Recover the amino acids of this structure.
């Protein structure tokens, strides 16, 4: 495999306070990679840097071999990286279908200005309908997105991230706020939708992490403590001491 996402020596400071301390991370193409660690470890900050919402104090970020360290979020998105946030970002006053059509317009080369072009494009409806079916919301097509259940809104969030054709996806706590059954369905949807795509996921549900990820990186106090397979991370004494705890089964 070749790398989809590479971080080299990434640092972030808030004034004199270090948040990220020389993060090195390689995510292979097609890999499902989880980033775990205690609150305050710097996980959300790292996502902001990758997505272009903030700038690192030092270091380099590459997407498919291209330096994206100083690009805007729009420029990063148009290079095939999509992000889903901790809280839903759906447009509650639009139909489920029109949410997807809006996402298509933002993903197009002209961005906001091309909404009318995308609205009239012959394949726009077809692409939105295909995504509706993939995320299991065809029956809710014409309903306002604000009337969906929380789990359904999270599924729509995933559809919004993917409908524009992203090949690399950042998911920030995709099962947060869900009960066990909803979380299990969400993980299966992510597993299906990430086929042939690259995933970097922040998640606090360890069952979801160990059940989905090919590899796991542990971020503690702004540094990557360890990276490995789920089996390797479970058995890592430093990880158990810093985050998982001795009660976690080997």
């Amino acid at each position: 495999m070749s790398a989809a996402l590479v971080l080299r020596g990434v640092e972030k400071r808030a004034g004199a306070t270090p948040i990220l301390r020389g993060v090195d991370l390689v995510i292979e193409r097609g890999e499902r990679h989880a980033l775990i660690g205690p609150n305050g470890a710097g996980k959300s900050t790292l996502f902001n840097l990758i997505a272009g919402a903030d700038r690192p104090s030092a270091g380099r970020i590459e997407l498919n071999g291209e330096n994206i360290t100083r690009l805007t979020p729009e420029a990063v998105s148009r290079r095939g990286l999509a992000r889903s946030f901790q809280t839903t970002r759906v447009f509650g006053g639009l139909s489920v279908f029109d949410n997807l059509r809006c996402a298509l317009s933002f993903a197009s080369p002209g961005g906001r200005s091309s909404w009318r072009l995308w609205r009239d494009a012959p394949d726009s409806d077809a692409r939105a309908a295909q995504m509706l079916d993939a995320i299991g919301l065809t029956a809710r097509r014409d309903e306002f997105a604000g009337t969906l259940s929380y789990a359904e809104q999270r599924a729509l969030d995933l559809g919004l991230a993917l409908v524009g054709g992203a090949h690399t996806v950042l998911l920030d706590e995709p099962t947060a706020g869900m009960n066990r059954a909803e979380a299990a369905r969400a993980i299966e949807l992510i597993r299906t939708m990430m086929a042939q795509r690259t995933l970097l996921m922040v998640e606090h549900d360890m069952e979801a992490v160990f059940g989905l990820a090919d590899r796991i990186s542990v971020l503690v106090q702004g540094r990557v403590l360890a990276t490995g397979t789920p089996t390797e991370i479970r058995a890592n004494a430093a990880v158990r001491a810093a985050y998982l705890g001795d009660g976690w089964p080997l």
Q: What stands out?
A: The mean pLDDT is 89. The two ends are 28 Å apart (CA to CA). The first strand starts at residue 3 and ends at 14. Strands lie at 3-14, 17-28, 32-36, 58-63, 66-67, 81-84, 168-172, 198-202, 215-220, 223-228.
